[in-house]
TrEMBL record:
This is Uncharacterized protein.
Amino acid sequence: LDDIRESIEEMRYYREKVFTI
């Protein structure tokens, strides 16, 4: 479960980065 949460957090960060650019 923790691993999934970490994956979602990373994906969210990547998505935010793309949107920023």
